[in-house]
Amino acid sequence: MHPSSSSSHPPDHPNPKSPPPPAPAMGYPANLPPPPPSSNAAYFASAAPPPRRHQRHRRFRRRLPLPCADAPLPLPPAPSSSARYHHHHYPPPPPPHHHPYPPHPPPPTCLRRLLGLVVAAFLLLGAATFIVWLLLRPRVPAFSLASLTLSRVAYSAANSSLSASFDASLLADNPNSKLTVTYFSPLASVSLAPSSPIAVATLPPFAQPPRNTTTLAFRLEVDGAYVGPDDAAPLKGGGVGTMEVQVRLAAVAVFDRGGWRTRRRVMRVMCDGVPVAFRGKNGMEAAFTGPARRCDVVL
């Protein structure tokens, strides 16, 4: 016989004064009360449990709660950097605008203003200088050799030495109409070939007003200077024929007008290849004959 269900189980309806069951958790189904017992349920409850064949495997099973139908499905986990680059052992490349060092802080405002003032001052000074240069237009002076005379020429063939006096006259022309040219530390020299000079003389400084032509005369004394065999060929024949003489002048030139003045520049005047012809019976004198010879000026 089946045992009576009314004697072994509580009544079908619970006490109305008992507390309500707890609310279900979010995303999980509500915990429904167990169904009322029946005769079949009492029978199976009193029956012996079946042998547990798969108890070992059930021990490791874990029941996972089922998600609610309205809850969103969880996203799959993002693959790690090691999984994405499992074929290489290099770290991922940096972004295109990656900077390993932090940017330098901007300079202070006062320093930037000071640099701006310095740059503006230089620009204004350069513009003013350019405008003045356009208004004044400085031009290089022109020099020409007016005369050259050799006197008391004495040559010694034993030691190939020469003694003579060179008298030269240069014409300096200032083509500027608004600028005065001043020459400081003029230095004149003479030589018989493009080599070291055989005589050097220091001249006094002088100045040229605008549109002025000045004659610069000077004498150079040569006393026992060595002369090469090629240059001494006219002297070995007793002073017959012609030979070439070089006269040069170097000075520091400054252009000025009132309070405006240029910086000092080295000026070089080169009168090369001046032919000098011997005259007289003993060949003791020679002179440059011809019109004034234009000289090269480098400034």
Automatic annotation (TrEMBL):
User: What is the name attached to this protein's record?
Assistant: Uncharacterized protein
Tell me where in or outside the cell this protein is found. Answer: Membrane
List the transmembrane segments.
114-136
Going by the UniProt record, its keywords in alphabetical order are: Membrane, Transmembrane, Transmembrane helix
Q: What is its main location?
A: membrane
Question: Does Transmembrane helix appear among the keywords?
Answer: yes
**What does the organism's lineage look like at the top?**
Eukaryota, Viridiplantae, Streptophyta, Embryophyta, Tracheophyta
Domain of life (superkingdom): Eukaryota
Tell me the organism: Oryza sativa subsp. japonica (Rice)
Record carries keyword Transmembrane helix: yes
One GO BP on record is: defense response to other organism
